[in-house]
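Possible race condition, two jobs.
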Amino acid sequence: MNQASRVPVVDERGKPLMPTTPARARKWIVLGKATGKRNKLGVFYVQLTDQPSGYKTQPIIAGTDRGKCFTGIAFQTKLATVILFHVCLPGFYKSKNLGKKNQTLDRQSVTGKMDKRSELRRTRRGQRIDRSKAFSQRNHREKRFNNRRKKKIPPSILSNRLMELRILREMSSILPITEIRDEACGGDTKKNGKGISPVAVGQEWFRSEASKIAPIVTVDSFDTGKYRDHLGLVKDKNNKSKQTPETHANDAISIAASHFIQYRSFNTSSTHGHEWVGECTVTLSPFIVLTRPKLFRRKLYQENYSKGGVLKRLGGTITPFGFRSGDYVQTSRKGEIIRGWIGGWTDTKKQKNVSVYDHNWSRVGQFDPKNVRLLKRSSRLCVNR
């Protein structure tokens, strides 16, 4: 059985076809039968220049292993693993003070930004009140009408689910996804019954949106382990923040493989029990880590005054050097080629530079804009292949 990975294929009009082997894809490119491309997720695929020989497809299953801070997504066929994703969700980031007594929310996460926004709003609202007047004559906001009629999803949960949906939508344009298998986590499981957790909030909304891409099948979280053990995959339960397939991607493979293999009961005249039915092969495949740029949108002003009572600018995504925050650029330092994403800038009489960050949003350094070359405009994703 062929143990090679697979390369997605689309026809000349962009319709997804069955993936092919890397050797065949290279041969097509050399002969001029196809051109190599990459989508916004960093996935390499080929587009045919001529009409394909057929449009018949086989099942391609997408498996999602959802966590609070990280999610694993895998695309699996019966004969090979197509691609793996490790998604760092923007709703909850690990606090920098993790393990300390005074632990605070990471201000670069959606939860931290919403808390800070409400804090600044309360401050501005208090500045408008004339406290020298009687309480009934002060400038208070009038009572709003009752417009809370919809079941809203918290912003942090919504941003996490939208990032997962974006990956499925991007991949559905280059892969003919047959089915999406989603793990029931936090609630609605055999052991817990109906429950609520930060992970499970918005789960039904995600499934309703993902069902527009492909049919949804729910896999119980307590069944994931037996599929993983049968396939011979390893699970890292100590530190799930590690950007390796063992943390979340292997579980996503197990969830997707449950379409091809089942643990069924059998009864004969002399014995009874359970056995594995079906076949699924796990192969080496590209592993991609996806994060979102931790950008600061334009604020009204900084919290603290500078000299002379001046409130300086803070945030913003447009630089005066032609770059935008989140742009993928290339520069060099001491002969070393550095690639990263624009995350900040300085424009004074003494200093003009831009800050370049890696995919984990750790600053690599500050560089002269004249020595920085734009590779790709911002797609609001940081891709590490």
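Job #2 (started ~2 s after job #1):
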Amino acid sequence: MFRRRSTEPRDRHDPILDRIERAKAELVAAVPSPRGVPGRPLADAVAAFEDGLREAAAAADVPDAWRAAIRESLVRAERLRLEAPALDYEGLVGALADLLAPLDVLDA
């Protein structure tokens, strides 16, 4: 009835990890390119990031550490969305890094 979670490292082509990586890419798309190409609107990028993380978290076999990291990133994304600060380039990069930081556990 209860499934034991594996302690083995997950395959790098794991569909959950793939979905999280796509969500991260959606978020990073908000950063303008050095050649002057504007980034994706921040609100759209954050919404896509949140949607992707929620989809990944909905899988039945998400490791507890990943689930906690996803939850923390979602809390930070909501805070950014609600506060809606004006961000210059450095502020934007810092804010996005803050949203991504909890997901570093996936690289371990």
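The two ends are 29 Å apart (CA to CA).
Logs attached separately.
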